[in-house]
Amino acid sequence: MTPRTLRRMAPASLLAVTALTVSTLPADATAPVERAIPAAAKAKGKALQQLDVPLVFGHRGASGYRPEHTLAAYELAIRMGADFIEPDLVSTKDGVLVTRHENEISGTTDVADHPEFASRRTTKTIDGASITGWFTEDFTLAELKTLRAEERLPQVRPGNTRYDGRFEIPTLVEVLRLVQTWEKRLGTKIGVSPETKHPTYFDSIGLSLEEPLVATLERFGLDRRKSNAVIQSFEVSNLKDLDQLIDTPLVQLTGASGGPFDLKAQGTTYAQIVSAQGLEQVSRYADWVGPEKSQVLPRNAAGATTTPSALVRDAHRAGLRVTVYTVRDENQFLPVNFRVGVDPVAKGDVRGEIVQLLDAGVDGFFADFPDSGVDARDSWLR
User: Fold this and answer.
1) d(CA 249, CA 228)
2) Are 98 and 170 within 8 A, CB to CB?
3) Which DSSP string corresponds to 7-65?
4) Are 81 and 34 contacting, i.e. CB atoms less than 8 angstroms apart?
5) 310-335 pLDDT, tens per residue?
6) Which domains does the chain have, with CATH numbers?
């Protein structure tokens, strides 16, 4: 394996950082660990081996500790040693890319508490589903900035509700500026993994996501194949478009069921996409595949993990790297063989699940609790 060229903390020092809790992590804490950004050149016709240092992606930031998709969540993920942070992207009415998991924001902001916006509550069809609420595309950026983020899973993560009302909805530009600040502070590189949400829908209303994303990445020097960035999407067509527009590596996300909305009329399923033949097709426009974790570690009828599937092997043979989603510490999100006790919101053996995923050969994983991910990854390396 090729040794990494960036600095890396000694194991004891690394564990000292990743073991810190939110309440004890000081405001000026830093995590000067190596940021293991892989070479991103497409390896057409060349089988890959697992990355020597698999990557930890801070899922929506450190969303286990702060309301998701806030600058506070992204910053904490960086301080905890995440190699990448993940901003999901939707558009405002005036065409600005902001970070929300969905364009419907009643569950992640205090918009319902703003009487001035009561009339904007509406019902729309998004990717074939009827959804009622408030939508980012009906607000200008200035209007969205009057809202504040709220915890999306208050019953699961009640401790995060203490931050409700404190943080704005950030723009992609603000996220990238935050990354630049912390790169200077830590003296190392931090990856960014934006995901385009509902790109076909946004195209249909004249608010295409791809062009402003490309322009923003170019502005920050993240438009090259060896950039510290990867772009994700559950759809296919927009990734193929992006492959023509930008050299930044691309990730084809897949789900355990269903298929990409843009190919629904063709009957294309994610199961077909992660077949050996499907992955060969993906490698023509993307550099990574991002499956749901059960596609790599299938579960039996009882909900326990079983023998790894062929997905990682087939992806590597096709020249694709593999990053899985989403690793979460709470029992209810873990396979039954890694749960501890019966309380669904109690912490389970997330390290055990991560080790099994790494043993299966994945090149990275998305984690709501980046400190747990970094600790498990580095323990596995040792």
Assistant:
1) 9
2) yes
3) ----HHHHHHHHT--TTT--TT--------PPP----TT------SS-EEEETTTTTTT
4) no
5) 999 999 999 999 999 999 999 999 99
6) 38-103+170-381 (3.20.20.190)
